[in-house]
Design brief:
Layout (H helix, E strand, L loop, with lengths): L1 H7 L3 H12 L3 H10 L7 E7 L5 H14 L10 E6 L8 H9 L9 E6 L5 H17 L4 E7 L3 H8 L3 E6 L8 H5 L7 E4 L7 H14 L16 E3 L8 H18 L1 H30 L1 H12 L5 H14 L1
Parallel strand pairs: 1-4, 1-5, 2-3, 2-4, 5-6, 6-7
Bound molecules: guanosine-5'-diphosphate and magnesium ion.
The site of guanosine-5'-diphosphate has 16 residues, from helix 4.
Length: about 325
């Protein structure tokens, strides 16, 4: 198909168009993705998550610049894709606009592609679209793909899980608690960042995180496989401080993933989850279509009248479908 071919040939306009098709869940988008899928699996997917205002967008901006500028002949600059997902501002688009402005100094670099996900519809749909967008960037040859998500709930954690390396960002001055500990997202962190290290309280945040990490059960090494202990990296995104340390940790984690066999394992889990999600969605769509709204409404009335329990109602609907 033309669109997929153009994306493979490096046509940025075609890529932008494809991402819109994917976001809008248009069949043309899924068709192109099917063609592109054999070309995926090469990118290092890096999730960046944390509470609103911790400095995720600033840090991503700083990371991209560092990755693009600090290359040499031995280590050419990676092509970098950025996917910014912020479902917390569905109507104002404020965060997205802010991100755009901050990302503007990266505009014009042909080795960088930035996409803000518009958040329409359910979070489930956003998670699916995000996976599709990441796949498209992977196929288009972006080596590192940074996925910025707001770490607030399960849906965002699911998006973060779609990455190989997950960075959880914390910052002082956003309340008494360390946000990652409170939100229970410490477990998904491969790398912890204390951003805004220029602000008072940064050392307390760093200490609280280190303590929380020490309380977690230590990783068990099987068959001499290397283990990973999440480092805590202080940064000042707005002054590009600590960014080269962070890039080193990202690279070190990628090397660890490859050496330990964990990369293959995470890819397997990622694709397993994706398959399950797509399958259950397709099955439920198919089921609802076959059943028809009136049949559903009938049973709903029976449940409302307490003549049928919800569990029994489901069994009955499923039985009818099988028989019919
Ligand atoms: N003092 C200080 N401010 C920062 C730092 N990083 C980001 N900020 C500011 O914090 C605010 C929120 O940053 P943003 O990147 O939009 O956070 P996000 O919501 O997590 O994406 C902005 O006003 C940034 O300029 C930092 O390292 N130090
Ligand atoms: Mg942001």
């Amino acid at each position: 198909m033309e669109l997929a071919q153009a994306v493979l040939e490096g046509d940025r306009l075609a890529l932008a168009r494809l991402l819109t098709r994917i976001e809008n869940e248009q069949p043309e988008g899924w068709e192109a993705l099917s063609i592109l899928f054999p070309h995926t699996g090469r990118a290092h997917l890096v999730g960046v998550t944390g509470a609103p205002g911790t400095g995720k967008s600033s840090l991503v901006n700083s990371l991209v610049r560092h990755l693009r500028q600090n290359a040499n002949r031995a280590k050419p600059a990676p092509r970098v894709g950025v996917v910014a997902v912020d479902p917390s501002s569905p109507f104002t688009g404020g965060a997205i606009l802010g991100d755009r402005i901050r990302m503007r100094d990266l505009a014009g670099d042909q080795g960088v592609f930035i996409r803000s996900m518009a958040s329409r519809g359910a979070l489930g749909g956003l998670a699916k679209a995000t996976r599709g967008v990441v796949e498209a960037l992977d196929a288009a040859g972006y080596d590192k793909i940074l996925i910025e998500t707001v770490g607030a709930g399960q849906a965002e954690v699911d998006i973060a899980r779609a990455a190989h390396t997950t960075i959880v960002i914390n910052a002082p001055g956003l309340g008494d608690d360390v946000q990652a500990i409170k939100a229970g997202i410490l477990e998904i962190a491969d790398i912890l960042v204390v951003n805004k290290s220029d602000l008072p309280g940064a050392q307390n945040t760093q200490r609280a995180l280190t303590m929380a990490l020490e309380l977690a059960p230590p990783p068990i090494s099987e068959d001499d496989k290397p283990v990973w202990l999440p480092p805590v990296v202080p940064t000042v995104a707005t002054k590009n401080e600590g960014i080269s340390d962070l890039v080193s940790e990202i690279d070190r984690h990628y090397a660890y993933l490859k050496d330990s066999g964990e990369l293959a394992e995470r890819d397997r889990q990622r694709i397993h989850t994706e398959l399950e999600l797509l399958l259950s969605e397709a099955l439920s769509d198919q089921f609802f279509q076959r059943m028809g709204q009136s049949r559903f409404d009938q049973v709903l009335e029976l449940v409302l009248d307490r003549r049928l329990s919800p569990q029994a109602a489901v069994l009955e609907l499923m039985d009818k479908e099988k028989a019919g």
